Amino acid sequence: xxxTRRGKTLLRTMRRGSAQMARDPEWLACLRESCELLxxxxxxxxxxxxxxxxxxxxxxxxxxxxxxxxREFTLVPxxxxxxxxxxxxxxxxxxxxxxxxxxxxxxARFCVSALSLALASGLSRPVVRGRVWVxxxxxxxxxxxxxxxxxGRDIRVSMxxxxxxxxxxxxxxxxxxxxxTVSFAKIGVSPLTSRLVRxxxxxxARLGQADLxxxxxxxxxxxxxxxxxxxxxxxxxxxxxxxxPTPPAQLASSMIELARVGGVRQEALAGxxxxxxxxxxxxxxxxxxxxxxxxxxxxxxAASLDGTTLAFGSWHGDWAPWNMAxxxxxxxxxxxxxxxxxxxxxxxxxxxxxxxxxxxxxRDPRSAAARCIADAPQLLSxxxxxxxxxxxxxxxxxxxxxxRYLVDRQAxxxxxxxAPGTWLLPAIRDEVAKLPRPWGVPGRVTxxxxxxxxxxxx
Length: 458
Known about the structure:
The protein is of the alpha+beta class. It has 15 helices and 15 strands. Helix 1 crosses helix 4 and helix 11 packs parallel to helix 15. It is globular, with a radius of gyration of 24 Å.
């Protein structure tokens, strides 16, 4: 693709992104709430998108952001993702876009470079039409003032909010006054996101002592509570460097190393502490037909396992292509808020495969969930898991994911995949139906007290 065609692609993407942003009231409401939390009164905040201007905030008109304390942020639209709020200053804005994008293809890298150049040169206004004005009063306690004090240097921020999810929260890129990336910060703005921020702090503290060889993880630079919000500051992994391919063997060895953090133990799944914790977690979800069905299937599944033993270790909890980068510095992995120990070995490999199928290849969710179980023997072979145990592991993984969605109320938050009854539970139910059920277990289709000798056991 030549430069002219690439430039036209960039313009189309930005214009469609601007139009998408303007007609997404849910995301705009989230942006407003986040800005008002991070720049609380007496600071004034206002938004303008397209023509005619649409304003909201503590005041009904755009504050004067031309003074030394004022800020005019730019909303940089992306067609397939929510916009990025970038700070004033051409170099800072360009750096924020370049270091946030995670562009992997040559075309995507060209578009990001072109947009960064446009921001740096001040030529982005024809396609970037969203603005947020922030004007703090002297002495206002804003997130920038707090982070400046914490980091011991003048700080500017860019902000990414992400799509509708229960765990959506502001993620800030901290930039110096000269436009260099200093670090990243996560802000807990709800009971769930605050718990996840604290969980990531604890996970990184533990993993920092694990002497990992295969992967690099962020270091915790600061944790604190500001205006009732949990703030976690992490050092900036240089994920924006030119990516290298990640061979499957390298990815598997990295996941295996992580699984062994804290040791690996063999245990019968049916009586395991893991299954007890999963059931207890599911019991905390709001009562619903999905919760009842999943609990019933878990009971039937556990009763049919016939002493199946699995290896239990640790997992990242959300290891996906967008939470890692492989560069000349090696494999870097971030977003550790779902890290856990005592789970069946191989969960990370299954999650990586499923998320890739759903988010990058846009597969049908129900079919992808079923294939996750069918392909589990191949996916888990690097972990030394036999075929029967692999299918058991995959089924439990889907139940774990469904439980997470129910407990977090992802469907209520608007997540497209937040209703496990439409795709995860059917795959679990189909696998449970293939297993023999002992007498008295709900769902039994024969009156015999024991399965016939020919029944296939996994």
